[in-house]
Amino acid sequence: MTRILLLAALAVVALAAPFFVYPILLMTILCFMVFASSFNLLLGYAGLLCFGHAMFFGTGAYIGGWLMKEGGFSIELAFAATTLAMAALGWVVGLISARRGGIQFAMITLAISQFVYFLLLRAPFTHGEDGLQRIPRSDLFGVIDVSSNLSLYYLILAISVAAIWFFYRIVHSPFGEVLRAIRDNEGRVESLGFVPERFKIVALTLSAGLAGLAGAMKASVYQIATLHDLSFHVSGTIIFMALLGGLGTMAGPMVGAALIVMLNDHLAQFGEWALIIQGTVFLVVILFFRRGLVGELQAFIRRRSAKA
Amino acid sequence: MTEPLLKVQNLEAWYGESKALHGMNFDVQPGELVTLIGRNGAGKSTTLRSIMGIVGKRTGSIRFDGAELIGKRTFQIARTGIAYCPEERAIFSSLNVAENLTLPPVLKAGGIADAELLRQFPNLQRRLKSQGTKLSGGEQQMLAIARILRTGARFLLLDEPSEGLAPVVVKEIGEQIRQLKSQGFTILLVEQNLSFARKVADRHVVVENGKVVDTLTNSALEADMARVKTYLGV
Q: Rounded distance, CA A120 to CA A16, Å?
C-alpha cells in the first residue's frame, strides 16, 4: 500500500514538475536516470564495470539525431531504431569482452569506447568537432507535434518510465537472479551448469540498448549530438552517479543521476570550481556512504525494522 | 563388478606453477558413497575441483559415465550429470534462500522437485525469505546440498560438508547424506572427520601428496584404525 502511494505521489510530482521546473533540466534528469539504470544493470547487478559506457549513450545520440535529421524518421521510430542499433553494438562488445571479468573487462570496454570515439570523430555524418547540430524534434507517429519543451517532456517521461519498468522487470526476473549470482560468484554459477558469458552478453546487449535510448532522447532534448556525449568524462560521470545513489539498488543510480544533474546545473555559475565541489562530494560519499545514499537509507530502514 | 561411473586415471592438476595432484587413480561405482580422506593439503578438494574443471590445468583422464571430462568446460561437466557442493558452500549472498534454492537450472530429468526438497530439508522451509548468508552454518550447508539436487545430477561431489559445524548438525547432515545414498545418488565425499566418514561411506580412498596411497572398505577401516590415523596424522 505504501509503495502504491509512493508511486502515485511520484507520478503527480512528475506530471506537475514542468510547470515549476525548467523542462530541459527535467528531461536531462530523465535521460540520465535511464542511462544510470543501464549502467546499474551491468555493474550493480552483474558486477561488470563497463568503463566506456558512454560509447552507447553518445553513439545513440548521433544515430538518433541522424535518423531524425537526415533519415526523416518520426521520433518514436528513431528512438526504437537507435535502441536496437545500440543493443547490437552491445552484443558485439559482449562477444569481445564477456569471457573476461574485473579490470580486464573494464579495460576492454574502455579500449572499444576509445575506438568508437575516434571512429565517430572521423565519420563524415557526425561533423567531427562541430557535432550534429539542429536535430529536429520529429513528430510523434509522424503526426503529433512534440517540438515544444512541454510536449517533449511528457513523451520523454513516458519513455523513461517504460524503460525503467523494463529495467525493473529484468532485474526481478530469473535472468536477473542469475546476473546477481554471477556478481557474487561466477565460478559457482558455471559449476551449476550455466554459461555465465551468455548471460553477460545478454546483459550488455540490454544495457547498451537502454543507454542508446537515453542518448537518443538527450539528442532530441538538446537538438545536438557531440563527441562529448561519448567521452571518457561521461563514462566517469555515470560511475559517479551510480556510486552516489547506491549500486545494486533499483533507485540508487537514478537518484544519483538526478542529484548530479541538478548539482551541475546549480554549480555551472562557479566554472571550474564545480569540478572541485563535485570531487569533494564524491570523496564524502566514498568515505561515509559506501553503499550510496539509497543503499545507506535502505540499510538504516532494515536496521530499524530488525530492532522493532 | 559393474563398469565404474567415475574412473580417474593418472590425474595431475596445477594451480598456476604449483602442481597439486601427482597422478590420482581411483574409481567410483554407481550408487556407491566413497570418501577421499587425508591430511590438509593432500589434494582431496583439488581432486573434486579437477573433476569439475575448476582448476587451472589438469592432465590424465577422468571418465564419467563413459565420457571423457578432461577438455570439457565446467558447465559442460555439470550438464553430464555431476553436481558439486564446494567447501565454502558458496551461497549467493545477494539472493534469499528461495532464490538460492531455485536458481540452479534443471539440466536432466530426475531432479528433485522444489516442494520435495523443502520436505527433505525442513529447516529451509522456515527461512525461505532470509538472505542466504544470514543462515547458520548448518542451514547454509543444507542449502548448499539441497540446491544441487534439483539439477537432475545423480553424481554428487561434496566437499567437507561437516566442516565447522556443531556435532548435532553434523549428525543431521550425515542423515541427509545417507538418505541421498538410499535415493540412488552416487556420492564422492571429501572428509577429514573420520568418525563422520565411516558412518556414511562404503569405501575410503586415502590421499597423500596428491596421490592415492590406499583404498579401504568401511570394514577394513574399522579393523585398522591405527593405520588410517597414521595417514591422517592424528
A: 38
Domains of chain A, start order: 21-307 (1.10.3470)
> Residue A140's beta-bridge partner residues?
A144
Q: pLDDT by residue (tens digit) across A265-286?
A: 888 888 888 888 888 888 888 8
Q: Is B74 on the interface with A (CB under 8 A)?
A: yes
User: Using the beta-carbon criterion (under 8 Å), do A184 and B94 form an inter-chain contact?
Assistant: yes
Task: Check: CB of residue B151 under 8 Å from CB of residue B102.
Answer: no
Q: How far apart are CA A215 and CA A132, in angstroms?
A: 13
Instruction: Tell me how far apart the alpha carbons of residues A70 and A72 are, in angstroms, rounded to a whole number.
Output: 6
Q: Locate the domains of chain B by residue range.
A: 28-45+73-232
Give the pLDDT confidence score for residue B234 in this predicted structure: 66
ipTM: 0.87
d(CA A127, CA A118): 12
Residue A142 scores a pLDDT above 90: no
Alpha helices in A41-148 (DSSP H): 46, 54-69, 75-97, 102-122
Q: Which residues of chain A have a CB within 8 Å of the CB of B74?
A: 187, 190-191
Under CATH, which number does the domain B28-45+73-232 receive? Answer: 3.40.50.300
Enter the C-alpha cell of residue B202. Answer: 562404503
Give the A-side interface with B, CB within 8 Å: 174, 177-178, 180-181, 183-185, 187-188, 190-195, 248
Cell representation of residue B60: 590424465
Give residue A56's pLDDT band: very low, low, confident or very high (50, 70, 90): very high
